[in-house]
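fyi for ur records
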Amino acid sequence: MKALLPERFDMARHISQYPPREYGFIRFNQDYALYILSQITLVPARNKEIADEMENRLTPLYSKLLQKVVRHYDKYLSYFVKTDIIYTDGSFKPGSIESRGRSRRYRFTDMYEPSDIVVVDYSRKFVKQLRKKRKEDFHQLQGEYGHLTKWLWPVCHLQINAPLAAEFLQVRREAQLNNPALIEKKLHRKLGYEIPKDPEMQYKHAMASVNCLVSGDIGCTVDGKVGRMHTVLTNIKSDLRHLITYRGKSLVTVDIKNSQPYLSTLLFEPSFWERQGPSTTTASKINISTLLQEESKEITDTSLILAHLNQVIDSQDLTIYIELVSARNGPHGQDLYLYMQQQSTNILGLDFSDRAKVKKGMFEVLFSKNSHYGKTKVKRLFKELFPSVNPLFELLKEGDNSRLPRLLQKLESHIVLKVITKAIHRKNKDIPLFTIHDSITTTDEYASVVEDIMQRELTRLIGLPPKLKVEPWRPDELDWEKYRDDVILESVA
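which gave:
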């Protein structure tokens, strides 16, 4: 366990220049100070959803979590704000992520924000304190998730080629800063359209994840709203996963292709929405009543949903949609995104040259507000191609566009974390298991076992066979050429 600080910041010099006693401290604990500052970088590095929702580089720091380690955390935050190390906008934000109460948001000031991060050691006494807290955190998860957390704690045998990871991230950062066309984008869930990611912040968060893997500080939390499990693996840049091994063994991930659209097919089963108690349908097998408990507070009347389903249950576009997102045989049952790309030239004069753009656009269909229809190409295309599917999505997002993605993520986390991985563990308790939301990672030797069980359980639960993608993690899969200088110069020219 290590602290992560801006390279330009020197704690000893700062304390000498700004004596803590003059700012109300009777006793200043340097470990506590390092810990508080580290969270500005570590919090988004450990949770991609937090990173994606950050605005103006401000990290939400949750008071309840800080107080578990540093009782008077607010004094340290106030000290560093007053001495111009960190900045806060001063506003409180409800703890929408992981139900962790209110938070204030912080970032390093302009003097330190552009600086690279460096690793700083805590005292041995404080490391012991942190390990005790981490043990308590993992103990709380052991009941439901012990079959997964045992691979992360007390010893995690995941390793990463840190020098190669650092080199790749530096090349990638420089390429993006020199060529804006290489900057990645993310969907802004409030605005409903894509905005560019910050290359500098991406670099820092990725390096923080690398350092956590090196030190064995993997961390593990479960989202209180949708049940998703967050570890360093879920947040680390996907390219860098090719540099990770387990006890020196290569890893393989088995991914549910187009998982959110695939899971959404369950919403078109009328039995999914029945509240009369247990039934013999596939929906009842995954305890839908529990998954819908929070949503049912807002969807008190399901009559509109059931009425719509009765009208479209045999519609052609719904049949095509189900074939596209599952492995069910049919004339259109190949690939949702490729199908949409091919059809785009005949719909409203739209043209998508890249299947990946359609895939990214599906997040807008599922996540963004209904009022944004007509503003994005993919949403217009989806509405035209699937007139029976789209209205149900709109109904579920009416008044709260986060309701549909919440429901789909609840289904995903329940199925992956509490059904499939437990079935794998029951079969063989020696199979290493690491989850990345809709995918399961293991070593080469067990990949086929994991794939077979995923295929069986998903078919049983959803009622449709899934499309699975098996991807090995290999260093030679790193996409260096995308960021090499000659490619950058050529693209700029």
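The first strand starts at residue 2 and ends at 6. thats all i got for now
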